[in-house]
Design the sequence.
């Protein structure tokens, strides 16, 4: 194939308006399924260390919607105007070699998250089977590995049909996720209302303002991690209008709503994993229901993640004409290997790496927003996105745009000064501004200044 | 290095998208209303509500 014979949905090439058929509802369903996963409980759990239910819900929801706004403004206009994914949408800012930075961020982030999700999935299966007396706790490692294998195989088979497979599976998973998720939330809030009301956050700092801002920060940085995912899906919609509400309500809002379950559970029951606390509340039957939820939600997110990775990898020279099944395997094999060989090691340590990876998405979003809305008048050179070599619109200097690299570096340094993403040690003015918002501001500002003072005067970057 | 040639199918797609009439349109005023409401004003109100507890 040319890429066309393989199915344009599986290519990294731009989709024309004739290829983009997803309605608002179809996109909403896919984005909800992509957004809902075990990480929501982790987000809720972290917020529950610092805040009570009301403050935690308010902070994490507000932060999530602010983060989603940044991601939406960065990716949706370009992706829906030209039918491109997140990686291609960033080529005008990073250069026709510099996009490798965004491919690395996407690949590492999604592979990492997928590995964590599937390990969670395997742990839930092992725990439930042990609870039901089907297996012993000694065989948990083997169950985890078999579960990972089964999950990877399912993702592979679904994605053989590309975006169509993703959309069709999402329609099924959607009802499990929304139905069971809403029921679990109601169950927890009604049965444990007194315990939740009386619960005190276990790691409150002593400064309510610091705790509140930390809840907001957790929400923002969590949703910024949607940057690698969103482009591959919103490019299936014909215009920005079709994608706006699905992005904000389908990908932004479900995370804090589902995180409420984790927040309430950690406050009331001191455990956020539903496959554990559902057994406490209703025995093994409830445990089975929780497991179905974990299966559906993590599987949906893993499918969306591998699909987005595949589209992103298509931008790498030499990968554009590989068979789609090989591209899927490139997104799945690392996940499979982690689940098979180093699940515990990965589970214990990879969170640190993901925390640092997540820091880059704030300046990345700001750079795209500044470039597209302020510097380029809401247009890019779509031909230039796919041209390589010197003399092309986005060649900059040896394919790299120094403005983007300096903006990312300045943003990263700003974040590390304000907040250590692992230890949560902070510096002024974190307790007033969060870390991600100043990081985005600094990253965008540095990009703007370097572009105006250096890049544009040098005639680079196809600015008019 | 001179610009490399593009795959004919990719070339066809780009040529089509270079015509502005074939591009997806950007945010409408209604979209901006929702973006600002859900991503800025709503969060501020929510934070005020949460802080009152």
Sequence:
């Amino acid at each position: 194939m040319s890429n066309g014979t393989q199915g344009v949905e599986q290519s990294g090439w731009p989709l024309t308006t004739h290829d983009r058929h997803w309605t608002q509802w179809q996109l909403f369903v896919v984005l909800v399924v992509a957004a809902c996963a075990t990480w929501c409980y982790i987000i809720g759990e972290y917020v529950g260390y610092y805040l009570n239910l009301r403050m935690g819900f308010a902070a994490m929801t507000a932060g999530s919607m602010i983060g989603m706004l940044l991601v939406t403004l960065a990716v949706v206009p370009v992706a829906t105007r030209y039918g491109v994914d997140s990686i291609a949408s960033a080529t005008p800012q990073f250069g026709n070699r510099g996009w490798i930075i965004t491919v690395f961020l996407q690949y590492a982030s999604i592979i990492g998250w997928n590995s964590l999700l599937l390990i969670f999935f395997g742990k839930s299966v092992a725990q439930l089977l042990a609870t039901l007396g089907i297996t012993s706790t000694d065989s948990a490692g083997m169950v985890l590995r078999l579960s990972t294998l089964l999950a990877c195989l399912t993702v592979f088979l679904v994605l053989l049909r590309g975006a169509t497979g993703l959309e069709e599976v999402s329609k099924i998973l959607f009802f499990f996720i929304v139905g069971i998720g809403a029921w679990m939330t109601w169950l927890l809030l009604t049965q444990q209302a007194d315990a939740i009301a009386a619960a005190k956050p276990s790691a409150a700092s002593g400064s309510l303002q610091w705790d509140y801002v930390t809840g907001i920060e957790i929400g923002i940085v969590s949703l910024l991690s949607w940057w690698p995912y969103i482009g591959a899906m919103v490019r299936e919609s014909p215009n920005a209008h079709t994608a706006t509400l699905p992005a904000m309500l389908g990908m932004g809002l479900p995370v804090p709503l589902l995180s409420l379950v984790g927040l309430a559970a950690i406050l009331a029951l001191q455990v956020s994993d539903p496959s554990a606390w559902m057994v406490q509340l209703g025995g093994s039957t409830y445990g089975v229901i929780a497991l179905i939820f974990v299966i559906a939600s993590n599987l949906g997110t893993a499918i969306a993640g591998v699909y987005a990775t595949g589209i992103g990898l298509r931008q790498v020279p030499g990968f554009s004409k590989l068979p789609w099944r090989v591209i899927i395997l490139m997104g799945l094999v690392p996940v499979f290997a982690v689940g098979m060989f180093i699940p515990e090691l990965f589970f214990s340590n990879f969170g640190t790496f993901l925390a640092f990876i997540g820091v880059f998405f704030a300046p990345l979003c700001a750079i795209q927003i500044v470039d597209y809305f302020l510097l380029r008048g809401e247009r890019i050179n779509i031909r230039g996105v796919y041209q390589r070599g010197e003399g092309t619109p986005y060649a900059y200097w040896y394919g790299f745009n120094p403005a983007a690299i300096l903006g990312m570096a300045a943003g990263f340094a700003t974040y590390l000064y304000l907040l250590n993403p692992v230890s949560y040690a902070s510096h002024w003015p974190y307790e007033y501004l969060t870390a991600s918002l100043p990081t985005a501001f600094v990253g965008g500002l540095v990009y703007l200044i370097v572009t105006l003072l250096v890049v544009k005067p040098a005639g680079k970057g196809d600015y008019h | 290095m001179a610009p490399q040639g593009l795959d004919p199918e990719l070339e066809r797609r780009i040529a089509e998208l270079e015509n502005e009439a074939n591009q997806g349109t950007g945010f409408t005023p209604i979209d901006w209303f929702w973006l600002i409401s859900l991503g800025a004003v709503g969060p501020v109100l929510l934070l005020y509500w949460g802080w009152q507890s």
Summary: Chain B has two helices and no strands. The interface with chain A takes residues 1-4, 6-10, 13-14, 16-18, 22-28, 30-31, 34-35, 38-40, 42-44, 46-47, 49-51, 53 of chain B (CB under 8 Å).
